[in-house]
Amino acid sequence: MENRSFSDASEALAAIDDARSNAADRLVTPGWYHPVLGLLAAVFVVAYTTGGTVIMISVAVAYFLGLGLLMAAYKEKTGLWVNGLKAGKASWWTVPLVLILILCAGAAYYFHAEKGLDWPAWVAGIVVFVAVNVFGRRFDNALRAQLRGKP
Fold this sequence. Notes:
mainly alpha, elongated, 151 residues, 5 helices
């Protein structure tokens, strides 16, 4: 980061706007990112709700390892990482996604544990996959617009 002195506040504000615009330009999510994230989340929901203890633990470890690898790949590509729950107004796209994930996993687990049905887990996995792709892209768009100072 460079140190510069500014002759007036408008110059400083313009520099801040330029930095935010540059960050927004760099935060372009690769096309493969959301499908991979959606697949990770879908497999997590299906396997976690229908598997036994060993499967649940294995899938949880694989899921969080996969998330870490995705975060590292994103940061490597863009140079930045933004926590989806700490992204200002853009986080309004993350909150319903987390709720969908929790509701789908809970419903799938209930139907498996109480009714012995596996098909609701597969439906929940599909819903989670689609939700991650839709809400993830909307989050990205909202974050870039927010950085550029657009409503």
